[in-house]
Amino acid sequence: MGLEYVRISPGFERYMPKDYVDLVQYGQFGKQIDVQMLGQFKELVEEHPMCAGCFMAYFIRVFYAALPNPEDTIVIGTAGCARLALSQAAVPFIYGNYGDTNAVASGLKRALSIRFPDKIKDVVVIAGDGGLIDIGFGMTMHSWFRREKFTTIMVDNEVYGNTGGQESGMSPKGVQLKMAPKGKQFDKINAVELAKVAGCVYVAKLAPTNPKRIAKTIRRAILAARHFGPTFIHAYTSCNIEYSIPTEKVLEDARKREKQDFGFYEWMTDEVKEFFEEIENKPQEVKA
Amino acid sequence: MYYVADVKEADCAKYNCKQCVLFCPEPNTLMYHDSKHVAWVNYSRCKGCAICVYVCSDLLKRNCIEMVMVTAGD
């Protein structure tokens, strides 16, 4: 971890894979990149096996472009769709067992702050609704109760997409799925309110319809987690396979859901609000 | 044989928008050419989801991207 590990030793450029050389020369290591520059630099995440038109893949693409310090970040994921893309990025990735992502992240963050007390090291958990709110519920909640300083991002596709379409706690009430033929009997869990009650200092809920806003939210969540405590983002990332959304309508669906129940919502404590007012109103450094 | 997105360069160069690039779910696939000011597609990486066509044709009414059939090796 750190910039010195990313750079290629002098004289070895022509022996390294082309993608890696591009990543160091035209990538985002050591630079502050605006998410609007997407498509004009080499991205951290590489080709991955996620389905065509998957909006979880899109969210992950924007997530990597939004990282404030990619060279000092560790991403933790678990079983589920998101790990297919997360493991293909040039950022260290740890694969937790199903449900224990936030426990692993707690230990890792504590270890990093002992090993590198004077450096910034970010830990980010990205897992699905199953990994965080169903199976990993206890460990997620307890990491928040203990006020561990890392970011938790839930990519909510409202179904167990990998295993054939079982209902999850986050599926909307009444929805009929391949492995829930009678329709779901219970309400969708209100993860945002749970996070607020459990002690998160920054909580946001969004549908990925505006890349600039996604990037700003992710950046804020990571910066707040460095100084204050746990932060949580609940992102709607539709499963176009299990919910039978034609791929070209995926963005339309996200815009529809944004109007219905995934409108942008952001909540933070007063001290976090003060912190952002201070750093975001400072004159910006010249961007690369 | 499979579908990929194809940018009509002459039409795309009229606008300086790159909205399609910002909404592609695949990394390093739909790219933006700095000097020509057009989007371009890395065909071997495109999965053919057509979200870019929705952005360009349905949202912006500019019709600069179309889906084309290519054969392996194109």
Question: Key features?
Answer:
heterodimer, A: 288 residues, Rossmann fold, 11 helices, 7 strands, globular, B: 74 residues, alpha+beta, Alpha-Beta Plaits, two-stranded antiparallel sheet, 4 strands
For the report, how would you describe the main beta sheet of chain B?
A: 2 strands, antiparallel
Report the end-to-end length of chain B measured between terminal Cα atoms.
10 Å
Distance between the terminal alpha carbons of chain A, to the nearest Å? 22 Å
CATH superfamily membership of chain A, which one? Thiamin diphosphate (ThDP)-binding fold, Pyr/PP domains
Structural class of chain A: alpha/beta
| Widest β-sheet, arrangement of strands of chain B | 1-4
Which CATH class of chain A applies here? Alpha Beta
What report would you give on this structure?
The complex is a heterodimer of chains A (288) and B (74). Chain A has one domain (31-280): Thiamin diphosphate (ThDP)-binding fold, Pyr/PP domains (Rossmann fold). Chain A has 11 helices and 7 strands. Chain A has helices at residues 3-6, 18-26, 55-66, 82-86, 101-115, 129-134, 137-145, 191-198, 211-227, 250-260, 270-280; strands at 73-77, 93-95, 122-128, 151-156, 202-206, 231-236, 265-268. Chain A has a 7-stranded mixed beta sheet, with helices on both faces. In chain A, helix 3 crosses helix 9 (211-227) and helix 5 (101-115) runs parallel beside helix 7. The longest helix of chain A is centred in the last third of the chain and has 17 residues, at 211-227. Chain A is globular, with a radius of gyration of 19 Å. Chain B is α+β, with helices and mostly antiparallel strands. Chain B has one domain (2-70): Alpha-Beta Plaits (2-Layer Sandwich), CATH 3.30.70.20. Helix content of chain B is 24%, strand content 27%. In chain B, the strands form 2 sheets. In chain B, strands 1-4 form a two-stranded antiparallel ribbon. The N and C termini of chain B lie close together (10 Å).
